[in-house]
Amino acid sequence: xxxxxxxxxxxxxxxxxxxxxxxxLVRNLDERCPGVRERLVHPDDPDRLMPGLxxxxxxxxxxxxxxxxxxxxxxxxxxxxxxxGA
Amino acid sequence: xxxxxxxxxxxxNVVGTRPIRHDGVDKVLGRAQYGADLKLPGLIHGAVxxxxxxxxxxxxxxAAKAAxxxxxxxxxxxxxxxxxxxELLDMGEEVTDLRWMSERIMARGKxxxxxxxxxxxxxxxxxxxxxxxxxxxxxxEPLPAVIxxxxxxxxxxxxxxxxxxxxxxxxxxxxxxxxxxxRIEFGDPDAAFxxxxxVLERTYTISRAHQGYIEPHSATAFWSPDxxxxxxxxxxxxxxxxxxxxxxxxxxxxxxxxxxxxxxxGFGGKIQLYLEPLAAVLSKKAARPVKxxxxxxxxxxxxxxxxxxxxxxxxxxxxxxxxxxxTADIRYMAGAYPGSSISAASVGxxxxxxxxxxxxxxxxxxxxxxxxxxxxxxxTPQAAFASESLVSELCERIGMSPMDFxxxxxxxxxxxxxxxxxxxxxxxxACMEAIRDSAHFQSALQREGPDGKLRGRGMxxxxxxxxxxxxxxxxxxxxxxxxxxxxxxxxxxxxxATIAMQAAEILGLPAEDVHPAVVDTxxxxxxxxTAGSRTTYASGQAAIxxxxxxxxxxxxxxxxxxxxxxxxxxxxNGVFRNKVAPDQRFAFKQAAGKLGQTGGPVAKTGxxxxxxxGGGSFAAHLVDVEVDPxxxxxxxxxxxxxxxxxxxxxxxxxxxxxxxxxxxxxxxALNEEYYTDEDGVMLNSSFLDYRMxxxxxxxxxxxxxxxxxxxxxxxxxxxxxxxxIVPPAPAVANxxxxxxxxxxxxxxxxxxxxxEALAAKRNGANGR
Lengths: 86, 768
Fold this sequence. Notes:
The structure holds two protein chains of two kinds.
Chain A: H1 22-32, H2 36-40, E1 53-57, E2 60-61, E3 76-80
Antiparallel strand pairs in A: 1-2, 1-3
Chain B: E1 2-5, H1 24-28, E2 44-50, E3 56-62, H2 64-68, E4 72-77, E5 88-90, E6 95-97, H3 98-105, E7 110-111, E8 117-123, H4 126-133, E9 137-142, H5 149-153, E10 166-168, E11 171-173, E12 178-186, H6 189-195, E13 198-206, E14 209-210, E15 218-223, E16 229-233, H7 238-249, E17 256-260, H8 276-286, E18 290-293, H9 296-302, E19 305-306, E20 309-317, E21 323-335, H10 342-348, E22 358-366, H11 380-398, H12 402-409, H13 428-436, H14 439-442, E23 454-464, E24 469-477, E25 483-487, H15 495-507, E26 514-518, H16 535-562, E27 569-572, E28 575-578, E29 585-587, H17 588-592, E30 603-610, E31 617-627, E32 634-644, H18 651-670, E33 701-707, H19 728-740, H20 751-762
Parallel strand pairs in B: 1-33, 2-18, 10-12, 16-17, 21-22, 25-26, 32-33
Antiparallel strand pairs in B: 2-8, 3-7, 3-9, 4-8, 5-6, 10-11, 12-22, 13-20, 14-19, 15-16, 15-18, 20-21, 23-31, 24-25, 24-30, 27-28, 28-29, 31-32
Helix pairs in contact in B: 10-11, 11-19, 15-16, 18-19
């Protein structure tokens, strides 16, 4: 978990959460750490990550947003997207 | 050039060869059409009035006289531009805020950088437009300019954007110029430093440096009465321009067509919108196509350089030289609006190393200068200048050779990147070993040059992750067996050839028989930008996919001809064969002649959304310099760049990317910077005064292509366009330190700074 979200996780940097997809993982994560979902999910599109955020699953960024399938031992990182370009 | 590889390679017929580039003749003969070459019926010409102040309230803009001037068709100001609310936009490699983008393109109420557009005119010709600009009256109320980190971050600093809400470690902050403060942390670096055998901390200052593309920005727009907008522009991102224009101008994306013209360099600096929306709104008002071309001064004043800033790094090692902890404090000046690639800098600053305990703080700071833009491995050369310089100095302190240090601490497969993800198989150590085994490294440096000049040798490593993302390529098979390949990525570095070659490999054709064409956004499926080291890697995969679909379709056609099942048809090395009747065989070209009677044309599109980069590309550079202690001038006398290409599709272009990045990095190291006055006005905004390296400044840059196959690509290809700019500045800094016995902690390491370092050494303040 990025340091900016650790207020929601009780300071935990690493959590084990079930989920067959990234969306399910975020849903389960939000049950455990209320408020996380609204920091991670696009307010107008429940299938998209929040703009400015990237999810890395098993070492590579997702290309299916929250629909990305996860394995039993998948490792997920939520990272800030590279900002710039204005 | 030497190629190293660590396994038996796939056998290729086309990939790995060096055909003449498909666009070479047009470029050599001057027939290639760049943005400024465009001519359209009824074309008129635009010009931009730019703020002379870095920070000023715009109290009044009166364009009445200009609008009435002879030959003028339209005048626009900020009032003519649609207002956008804050909304984060995905730009492919980066994200940006729509509102900041809109305000940057045309000032409304306040100018926040010198060169900020305040008004624009379209007239019958360029001279008429420029004359009309002189008739526009603007009342400014100058404000104090914030042009340094110190000014921007000081308590009580002048706040550039009253409504900027900073994100400081997740907390909202108002009344600040710090748009973002991020932190990456794992382990306990502070405790690890306590236990370390050696700890070194240094602060480095890096100048902002411009991408320096030869071709200035240009854009032509025609806003048709039917509401459709056509734009011809020099861009790395035609689909990005299309979506950003739609967002800025409040149009449906399908109403905008963008035609990418030939591009004379970009290096990340031709992703953002600059002239396109102005030309569009002028065209709408004038009901004619409007062309706008920037002059060089405006390019320097008003388009993004890479950010400058300050980086403090600290590293601790155990008694064997193994890293036990590292921290970084990265502060980049984003320019007038947020976004300076601090995230990429945070990844890149220690990416080459195994670091068990780590903390990286990064600050994105707005100042009153032009908004920075991506510049080749955005944010990373600056961070690497700090970390790789520190490593070299640390090695001096502990009596360890930098080569041994790199090999001991190199991040490998299974190690974590600083931001958390685990590296797959990568070529970090392989690059360092390639340098170690090179003739350059193995040769002794003659330490005394002519006329008392001092010589030194330095090395550094570098990393850039790159991206994959979306690409579409269409292949059409002609009756003569030559295929046309339609793609949507502007060709900056030879990608017409490298994409065509990947298709040719699958089709069993020579590269010359695949004719690539870069087309407009209505003529091909979606393509992300030509950036992020993605085009050969990701669009190449779209070409491979399209070629495979072509082969499958042609197998069906040959099955019809041979009256057999398609599964009986095999295709290998450009020949279709009937497995059950081995004498039945057609070369691809013969088969192509049968398409008309077997169902008609074959045209197939490959569309991909490639996840990630496969671990990115590492590099190691070695440089010898000669420093004149009388003048402080540094001359690069030998240079070797090794980098992991996965599989080099066209080795000449790979070598060219290595050399080009190294040359740009040497420029950043030795000469390039923005000289500004205290009001933030750039004083060296021409190529005469902004000193980029020329061929006379550099020796032949030797290259070593390392090939550690990328599991994410069918041929093992890695994106390689960016990493080569990361190691040069610290490698040169380390070589200068080796030559003169004194360290420089600031770019550019120009003669004045070298003389200062020598003087400090004489005074005992800097030296070894």
